[in-house]
Design brief:
The structure is a single chain. By secondary structure, this protein is of the alpha/beta class. The protein has a domain at about 1-165 and about 235-290: TIM Barrel, CATH 3.20.20. It is about 55% helix and about 5% strand. It contains 13 helices and seven strands. The protein has helices at about 1-20, 35-45, 55-60, 65-85, 95, 105-120, 145-155, 175-190, 210-230, 230-235, 245-265, 265-270, 300-305; strands at about 30, 50, 85-90, 130, 130-135, 165, 195-200. The strands form two sheets. A four-stranded parallel β-sheet has the order 1-2-3-4, covered by helices on one side. Strand 5 (about 130-135), helix 7 and strand 6 (about 165) form a beta-alpha-beta unit. The chain is globular. The protein starts with a helix and ends in a 5-residue tail after the last helix.
């Protein structure tokens, strides 16, 4: 009830401010943990627009049992899809524990898996906020081009998805001047490649929880870049055989090879071996396994048939 009341209070507050500004303000929150379907219902009731909904994130970073959370995710995504809620996935987190250059293909592979899991739950492409991030080492030569290749490739592979693009965090050192430049480069790629959901970086990342003044500077940074480079992606093409195209091809080929491997050995086995994020999780470990039971012969969930493809 506390979670639902928080949703209600936030929706009411944003609607009040939105009326003053004469525009609608979207509300985002989490639909994760051991109560994914329940929180999805609360979000639907209280008018949330975007919800983090990703079992793989829960398995890897919250140590939730893989069997439990994939089951929960299916029904929760059916609810999110029915309610018109955009889901976010957490592939950006993979690059906080794994190298963004070397493991870029794992992010794309996971995005493709999450796309299919969302599709099976009846979520349209326009509600798939598939995640990735700007997390390469800033000392990497041509790192900007590699980040650009990753973002452009992701946009072209998922042309209708409101991609969730996360800012640099791993290599933010506390140098606020360099950090602000890193965030500006991130914003350039965001507008260049038409990312859908742009989470803004904070110049005080790695120092303290951002102040309102820090957030204002981040918004100012993004607005400046977005306005001045609004149509750059429509004007520039990438040369055949160049760094950007070659890098995108390399990552795509790596993702295809990884998916073929997962197809052969299974997703659970891949998660046990630490293929994603360099984090290993046992299929019978983690939180919530005791809540997994075999369906009885008379089991029925009437809402699945109603909500998948039904009227909203």
């Amino acid at each position: 009830m506390a979670t639902q009341e928080n949703f209600r209070l936030m929706r009411a507050a944003l609607d009040e401010v939105g009326a003053e500004l004469k525009r609608y303000i979207r509300l985002c929150n989490y639909c994760s943990g051991l109560c994914m379907p329940e929180i999805a219902v609360m979000g639907a009731f209280e008018g949330l627009d975007v919800m983090l909904n990703d079992a793989l994130y829960g398995i890897l970073f919250r140590d939730i049992n893989m069997q439990r959370t994939l089951i929960d995710q299916y029904f929760s995504r059916i609810i999110n899809g029915f309610a018109g809620v955009i889901i976010n996935t957490g592939e950006d987190n993979y690059l906080t524990t794994a190298d963004a250059y070397e493991e870029a293909h794992t992010v794309l592979a996971s995005d493709l898996i999450n796309e299919q899991l969302a599709s099976l739950a009846g979520i349209p492409e326009e509600q798939m906020g598939l995640g990735h991030a700007f997390e390469m080492d800033p000392e990497l030569t041509n790192g900007f081009l590699y980040e650009l290749a990753q973002a452009q490739m992701t946009r072209e592979i998922f042309p209708n998805a409101p991609l969730k693009y996360m800012p640099p965090t791993k290599y933010m050192t506390g140098n606020i001047f360099k950090g602000h430049v890193q965030d500006a480069l991130f914003n350039i790629i965001g507008i260049w490649t038409h990312q859908g959901i742009q989470l803004l970086g904070m110049l005080t990342e790695a120092i303290h929880t951002p102040f309102m003044s820090d957030r204002y500077l981040s918004i100012e940074n993004a607005k400046y870049v977005f306005n001045n480079m609004r149509n750059i992606g429509d004007e520039i093409v990438f040369k055949e055989g160049g760094i950007v195209r070659n890098r995108a091809s390399q990552v795509l080929e790596g993702a295809i090879s990884l998916l073929e491997r997962i197809d052969n050995e299974g997703l659970f086995s891949a998660l046990e071996k630490g293929i994603f994020a360099n984090v290993k999780r046992p299929r019978n470990g983690g939180k919530g396994l005791e809540g997994v039971v075999e369906k009885g012969n008379n089991y029925i969930n009437p809402f699945i048939g109603i909500m998948k493809g039904g009227k909203r």
